[in-house]
């Protein structure tokens, strides 16, 4: 199966590629605007082609007639999209529309999986959020995601693609440097103290709940969406909330103590940021994901498990570099 992954240099793109390459029948094309590479030593690495390309400028060589699946993962995340209005719309919407048009013209009807976000929702929130809740984002990033979801719906209804928009929870724990996402501290609470670095948490409300998922479960669910029947959802309603789990800042602190020791808590600095508090209040948390689970997707594990998996990944990396 030939699979295209946009945003292939990003964390989720790389994690997805690693999993897909375990199947020698898969051939991957990964593209990103930046120069990037896959980690050496991956199985079937010869099955992956890497293309540095700006999707706003050119999709030639990226979209080919033999493609069977496309994962649209590229984009500027929440804080970056809010800080630069024009750039956010160019990357998150304009490039996505150009890509979809290229698919429509070159490889019509193929499965397209678009990475959307729970940022498509806005207040007031019902007690439980389902796919039937009206989409009313409170930020530019969410608006861009809603616009792309509308394209996925329309292009699927018209038969140009066979698409699904999957709304991602906060993904934790992300390795590396903090991302341009307002929620990046959710990973930082574990990642930074374990590396001996301070983590700034922009709220002192430890009981605030967040909707999160581990990279491992996210990747498995993305792959499962590849094989969903075309009529699993109505052709004009292709949005699907992916499973996550609820966690508070206090519970994240407890997880850090569990995997790193009590002394690591001293590296967390909590401050009250009024602008951030306003943003946090616009984030939905309590989701009903019975639709996704009914389609066979996997339930997210708790934050403790995500923290443990991150520690295991660090230990694996040390072995690999020895």
TrEMBL record:
<keyword id="KW-0521">NADP</keyword>
<keyword id="KW-0119">Carbohydrate metabolism</keyword>
<dbReference type="InterPro" id="IPR001509">
    <property type="entry name" value="Epimerase_deHydtase"/>
</dbReference>
<dbReference type="InterPro" id="IPR036291">
    <property type="entry name" value="NAD(P)-bd_dom_sf"/>
</dbReference>
<dbReference type="Pfam" id="PF01370">
    <property type="entry name" value="Epimerase"/>
</dbReference>
<feature type="domain" description="NAD-dependent epimerase/dehydratase">
    <location>
        <begin position="3"/>
        <end position="201"/>
    </location>
</feature>
<protein>
    <recommendedName>
        <fullName>NAD-dependent epimerase/dehydratase domain-containing protein</fullName>
    </recommendedName>
</protein>
């Amino acid at each position: 199966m030939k699979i295209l992954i946009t945003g292939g240099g990003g964390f989720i793109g790389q994690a997805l590629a690693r999993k897909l390459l375990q199947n020698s029948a898969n051939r991957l094309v990964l593209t990103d605007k930046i120069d990037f590479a896959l980690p050496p030593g991956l199985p079937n690495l010869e099955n992956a082609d890497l293309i540095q390309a700006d999707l706003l400028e050119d999709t030639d060589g990226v979209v080919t007639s033999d493609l069977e699946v496309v994962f649209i993962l590229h984009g500027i995340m929440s804080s970056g999209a809010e800080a630069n209005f024009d750039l956010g719309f160019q990357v998150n919407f304009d490039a996505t529309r150009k890509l979809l048009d290229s698919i429509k013209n070159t490889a019509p009807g193929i499965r397209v999986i678009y990475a959307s976000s729970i940022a498509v929702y806005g207040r007031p929130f019902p007690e439980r959020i389902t796919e039937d809740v009206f989409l009313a984002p409170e930020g530019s990033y969410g608006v861009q995601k809603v616009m792309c979801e509308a394209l996925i719906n329309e292009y699927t209804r018209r038969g140009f693609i066979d698409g699904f928009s999957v709304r991602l929870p906060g993904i934790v724990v992300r390795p590396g440097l903090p991302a341009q996402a307002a929620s990046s501290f959710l990973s930082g609470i574990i990642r930074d103290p374990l590396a001996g670095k301070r983590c700034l948490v922009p709220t002192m409300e430890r009981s605030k709940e967040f909707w999160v998922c581990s990279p491992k479960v996210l990747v498995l669910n993305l792959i499962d969406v590849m094989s969903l029947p075309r009529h699993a959802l109505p052709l004009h309603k292709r949005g699907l909330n992916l499973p996550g789990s609820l966690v508070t800042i206090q519970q994240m602190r407890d997880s850090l103590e569990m995997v790193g020791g009590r002394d690591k808590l001293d590296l967390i600095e909590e401050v009250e940021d009024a602008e951030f508090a306003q943003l946090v209040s616009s984030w939905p948390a309590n989701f009903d994901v019975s639709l996704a689970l009914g389609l066979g997707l996997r339930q997210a594990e708790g934050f403790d498990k995500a923290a443990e998996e991150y520690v295991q990944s660090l230990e694996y990396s040390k072995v690999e570099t020895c």
